[in-house]
């Protein structure tokens, strides 16, 4: 889309509060829809535009019908932005991504090599110098903003298998919102040293958090982190008030290792000198990944916990729902790795019905199609809309309020309610012939353009 021909951003003073009114064919968050509608904002501390969007501390004065906003006294003093062929939505949340891998770009999946072949691709291409890591994160941030994503649950990848805060520092220095989960492995012979380093790095990162970006913990996965290290992680998260993310029930290799202590994961641990026979007390005893995880963490409700993927749920729906954890479902990534062929269709709808908070993520750019625009959560929404005919408001909730909840952030940042500070606002241009109708969000998902950022909140 040609931004200049669609969104002409008004000039906003940097020295005093200003009001901004945005009129659109439809204004909606995951809970309310106005068609046609208007959004009235108070802007403070405005700065230079970023990714073509207004940059300011934005507070909602009102959202509603055009007539309702006409009646607000601030409306007369507001700069106006007219988007008569667009749907206005909150900025989107990518609940699970790997921005420090953005430099690698899309790669085809080698089914013969399996998931560990993918791991080899990541390990051989991962940046290790802080400056290079920062460049990759910055690239990922820019791609995200251009896709209407204003908040991320990013994994600050381990460097040479050791916890490292370079990606956290890069995200904290950016203009986006979110959590940078510091990744670590802690299993077998090196568990003690690995955990000691991870704890030190996380404590330091936590002290450098900003108003928009804070640190989190990323014990990598159930086949690379011991139950003891998970318990230590929960204790540290509770002490520091930080969220936790982990990969869970993602691959058949994970299932085999946890249930039988065999397979490619066992071979890898032996090859890198980490395997220890004492691991057989916890691995190889017939449990599924979800049951193994539930037994390991015991009392998870004391922390904000988000599990990425959960492709391999099987008969463990009740066990997972009892954890109080969120799920970051990455539809494209699940298809990329052939999860449905191994485990059947993803049970995200069953999880939602059971009361589990399900958000959306892209995973890394490696598993995304080369033809796809950037790191787009909107495309994940579209995928579920086309494949499963999910209701538009459910998809928008998964990509906004649910994502915020999964990351331990305020859901109000993604709701057009009076008094709410906003993380961002995006607009989706409608196809020709669309009208002022409440089903415009569905039309935008089915046939509209990609979201463009209108405002990025401070």
Explain the overall architecture:
Strands 1-3-4-15-14-5 form a six-stranded mixed beta barrel. α8 packs across α11. 53% of the residues are buried. With 458 residues, the protein is an alpha/beta fold. It has 19 helices and 15 strands. The protein folds into two domains: 134 residues, Roll (Urease, subunit C, domain 1), CATH 2.30.40.10; 299 residues, Metal-dependent hydrolases (TIM Barrel).
CATH fold call of the largest domain: TIM Barrel
Do you know the CATH architecture of the largest domain? Alpha-Beta Barrel
What's the CATH class label of the largest domain?
Alpha Beta
Distance between the termini: 26 Å
Number of helices: 19
Helix content: 25-40%
**What is the number of domains?**
2
Strand content range? 15-25%
Mean pLDDT: 94
Radius of gyration: 22 Å
Largest sheet: 6 strands, mixed, barrel
Runs with pLDDT <50, length 5+? 1-5
Structural class: alpha/beta
Shape: globular
CATH superfamily of the largest domain: Metal-dependent hydrolases
Q: How many extended strands?
A: 15
Strands side by side in the biggest sheet: 1-3-4-15-14-5
